[in-house]
UniProtKB/TrEMBL annotation:
It comes from Solirubrobacter deserti. InterPro entries: KR_dom, NAD(P)-bd_dom_sf, Sc_DH/Rdtase_CS, SDR_fam. SUPFAM superfamilies: NAD(P)-binding Rossmann-fold domains. The lineage of its organism: Bacteria, Bacillati, Actinomycetota, Thermoleophilia, Solirubrobacterales. This is SDR family oxidoreductase. Belongs to the short-chain dehydrogenases/reductases (SDR) family.
Length: 229
């Protein structure tokens, strides 16, 4: 196991799983750099970026990595959703889910790869159980997360032994992700949800693996996760 996690770029690091990952990185003696649209509440280094603009995201990642003297890992925890039947969801909102969750992920990874090759670093993408199982009223989210699954599996083969690649597949978590939704699209009152801090420990476990040791996919769900299997 690696003793240090080093400098870790975390997208979506101002809330939810991303914030938990950033906090876990700092607790392990590493340095978290948060990319998000709003500042993190914990005072970690922050760079404002909208992942719906992939070229902007690439430019920010490159600049941040150069200023930091390199990167040791990237965790793409940023995500958004637009619930409802496809014809009931605004077209721009539907497109934004794909832009942020899939194209934003790919853009950040693309920009980070040259730096991660130098450090023999690691990429952790965040998919979802809905990247493996399709549900109604979730066409945008499923499309984006199925895309992350395919992207990550292909990327792992492409990277070989140059950069580690792990895909996290989380189930439901107690985060702000469900805020603002209609009741029909929120977890049920008795549904079990994981603490994102616990799920973040899985990410840190992946980040601390030595070069050449791969945790290709980590499925972490509540014991009674309704979207799995």
């Amino acid at each position: 196991m690696r003793d240090e996690v080093g400098t870790v770029l975390v997208t979506g690091g101002s809330s939810g799983l991303g914030a938990a990952v950033a906090a876990a990185v700092e607790q392990q003696g590493g340095k978290a750099i948060v990319l998000d649209r709003v500042p993190p509440p914990n005072g970690f280094q922050f760079e404002e970026v909208d992942l719906a603009n992939p070229r902007e995201a690439e430019a920010v990642v490159k600049r941040v990595a150069e200023e930091a003297g390199g990167l040791d890992a990237v965790v793409t925890a940023a995500g958004t959703d637009a619930c409802g039947d496809m014809m009931d969801v605004d077209a721009d909102d539907w497109d934004r889910v794909i832009l942020v969750n899939l194209l934003g992920t790919a853009a950040v990874v693309r920009a980070a790869i040259p730096f991660l090759e130098q450090s023999q670093g690691r990429i952790v993408t965040v998919a979802s159980t809905l990247g493996l199982r399709a549900l109604p009223a979730a066409t945008a989210y499923c499309a984006s997360k199925f895309g992350v699954v395919g992207f990550t599996r292909a990327l792992a083969i492409e990277m070989g032994d140059k950069v580690g690649v792990t895909m996290l597949i989380p189930g439901g978590m107690k985060t702000q992700f469900f805020d603002g939704r209609k009741e029909e699209f929120k977890p049920g009152p008795n549904q079990r949800l994981n603490d994102p801090a616990v799920v973040a420990e899985s990410v840190l476990f992946a980040l601390r693996q030595p070069p050449g040791v791969e945790l290709r996919e980590l499925l972490v769900t509540p014991s009674a996760e309704p979207s799995w299997p």
